[in-house]
Amino acid sequence: MSKTHACGKYTKAIHAGQSIDPLYGAVSVPIYQTSTFAFLSAEDGAAKFAGEVKGYKYTRLGNPTVNALEQCVAELENGHGGLATASGMAAISTVYMTFLSAGSHIVSTGSVYGPSRIVIEKQFSRFGVEYSYIDTSDLSNIEKSIKSNTKMLYIETPANPTLAITDIAACAAIAKKHGIVLVVDNTFMGPCFQRPIELGADVVVHSLTKSLNGHSDVVAGMIVTKNAELYKKIQAVHYQMGGTIDPNQAWLVLRGIKTLPLRVEKSAQNAMEIAEFLKSHPAVTSVAYPGLKSHPQHELAKKQMSGFGSMITFEVKGGIKAGKAVMNGVKLAALAVSLGGIESLIQHPASMTHAGVSKKDREDAGITDGLIRYSVGCEDASDIIADLGQALEKIK
Ligand code: LCS
């Protein structure tokens, strides 16, 4: 058991998976920028490949810097182990590849990040995988969609971009009853505010590109499993498929995570203020933020999350035309996709992150053409509000 196993999130974010370098005493984890590792002898190499002796062989099959990151995120999630990947989509595709075969069926949140759905609809379907994209925030929809060939329940909560919330513990009970695996995309909340494995999930996936790295300068992903059996199963597929992260990128994410709890607390505090500002603004017709009492699943959010996150979606009077004027009008927030960075970002899901999902499927999933998504950063809330305020003035 690691020395930080029983520690709190601030300690884990700084120390989990990381120890003083035994060679030179470096306090920061060294970047082992190597593709391969020399063996002590032919026998040593053979023993390492046979699994008889522990040790690194080749970076696609494990690297000390990458392993430090994997342990850190696995501990933050209170899971068994982690597998770091080159992107969030590499993590998700690897998990799909592990559990889905020709003739299997997946039940998933309709309003997931576009490519998480598109890769099933366009690629996995070519190999005979069937799918049902539904509103998982209504549990009765899940029960109705599960079939004899269903192998996976995949949920994203809060969902991107609708911020609809799905009851993780209830999904775990349904998955257990049907003997299927429950996978939760925890990108929007991150482990400081939501730990799906503690609520019964089998596997957690992350786009580390977002709040965990937090500085909009790396693309990376992570898979965390609840036990050793699932870890081994996914690890084999991951090492064969090869969506491995580069050690240098892994180190950057590890550094970003050190301030994760501080950043997500500040951005969530900002987001609450901004959501309230938007709600009271005459040019805004609707605001979705899990921390608002008006959010349809506010009570569930309070139950399964310990914070409400940094993502807000809203619509303005005048639909998409006015929405575009707001996106073009903001000066502080960058008009860019991605989220969870230290800086605020604004974007339009229907024409950007979810453009690959058909208009009908978008509408069924609640992703209207007028929806604007705001990723709240760690700037002063008053500055963000002033910036949004001047942009909204233009459409009044
Ligand atoms: N899961 C969620 C919930 C995401 O939001 C994203 C990316 C991914 C997975 C995929 O991660 P990646 O491969 O990009 O590291 N979401 C994006 C978004 O909303 N805007 O740009 C990317």
TrEMBL record:
Provide one Gene Ontology cellular component: cytoplasm
**Gene Ontology biological-process annotations:** transsulfuration
Enzymatic reactions? L-homocysteine + H2O = 2-oxobutanoate + hydrogen sulfide + NH4(+) + H(+); L-methionine + H2O = methanethiol + 2-oxobutanoate + NH4(+)
Keyword Lyase in record: yes
In short, the EC number is: 4.4.1.11
Q: Which InterPro entries match?
A: Cys/Met-Metab_PyrdxlP-dep_enz, PyrdxlP-dep_Trfase, PyrdxlP-dep_Trfase_major, PyrdxlP-dep_Trfase_small
Query: What general EC class does the enzyme of this chain belong to?
Result: lyase
Q: What is this protein called?
A: L-methionine gamma-lyase
Q: Which organism is it from?
A: Candidatus Wallbacteria bacterium GWC2_49_35
Stretches of the chain forming a coiled coil according to its record: none
Asked if the record carries the keyword Lyase, the reply is: yes
